[in-house]
Inverse folding.
């Protein structure tokens, strides 16, 4: 009887721990996903700006020439 | 050179975070909340960066209104946008933590509501900038709006002291207890996030200046 209650306690502890780790991983994943998305947006904007500057400079050179 | 410094700082921030996450994973469970409590090591640093960004945005906006120097305006946009990203993470991690501990994703208490209002105000700031074409007018209106938006920041910070809230009282400045080695890990995470925030702001600031260069090149192209 004592063994059964001990096993039940262990199972319940394991379930609680698994549930808590689940929420911890949700929190950490959400944090990193949002920051990575923002960094990707920054990278995309950087590329767009560089392309735009290069094409405008080329256009100005052409007009001056 | 500047780009290399940014890369080095970014890598340093990520290295500190990787080392610290590894150490945090080995910390024992908190007695009441178990391992879920470890969200604090991300939730609090994210908010610390967000609040620092809001203070920097206020200073940059005042700087622009006083000097009319567009570098201040570019700085204000950069810190506001990065701060908004960190505020988003703070709200989301807080909501996930609340779901596990309180059993609800959201509640309209003073801390959570003022934090959401803060997010909406700074998102509104960025939308306002997109709505105004003329650069001087855009920078002036945005600076005034940013100063107005900052009024919410002290409410976010002190709401848990001023009102009874679902959100717990502050751990560090209301007599709460936090083991010294845990405090050290929290501080390391805060330093790493702050460094990451600084790198993001520097990149965004440079982009804003590149945008100004594009505007002037366009004017030149029209004039020719």
């Amino acid at each position: 009887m004592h063994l059964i209650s001990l096993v039940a306690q262990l199972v319940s502890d394991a379930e609680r721990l698994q549930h808590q780790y689940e929420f911890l991983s949700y929190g950490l994943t959400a944090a990193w996903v949002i920051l990575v998305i923002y960094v990707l947006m920054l990278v995309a904007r950087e590329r767009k700006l560089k392309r735009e500057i290069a094409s405008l400079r080329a256009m100005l050179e052409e007009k001056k020439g | 050179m500047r780009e290399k410094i940014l890369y080095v700082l970014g890598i340093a921030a990520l290295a500190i975070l990787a080392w610290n996450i590894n150490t945090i994973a080995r910390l024992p469970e908190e007695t009441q909340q178990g391992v879920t409590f470890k969200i604090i090591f991300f939730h609090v640093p994210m908010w610390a960066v967000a609040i620092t960004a809001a203070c920097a945005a206020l200073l940059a906006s005042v700087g622009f209104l006083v000097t009319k120097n567009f570098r201040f305006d570019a700085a204000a946009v950069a810190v506001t946008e990065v701060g908004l990203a960190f505020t988003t993470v703070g709200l989301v991690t807080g909501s996930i933590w609340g779901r596990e501990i309180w059993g609800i994703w959201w509640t309209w208490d003073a801390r959570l509501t003022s934090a959401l209002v803060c997010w909406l105000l700074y998102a509104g700031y960025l939308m306002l900038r997109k709505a105004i074409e003329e650069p001087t007018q855009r920078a002036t209106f945005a600076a005034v709006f940013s100063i107005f938006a900052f009024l919410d920041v002290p409410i976010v910070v002190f709401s848990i002291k001023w009102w009874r809230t679902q959100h717990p009282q502050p751990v560090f400045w209301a007599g709460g207890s936090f083991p010294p080695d845990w405090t050290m890990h929290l501080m390391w995470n805060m330093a790493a996030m702050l460094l990451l925030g600084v790198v993001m702001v520097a990149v965004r600031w440079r982009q804003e200046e590149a945008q100004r260069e594009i505007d002037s090149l366009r004017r030149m192209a029209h004039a020719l």
Observations:
- The mean pLDDT of chain A is 89.
- The CA atoms of residues 52 and 58 of chain A lie 10 Å apart.
- Chain A is about 95% helix and 0% strand.
- Helices of chain A lie at 2-64.
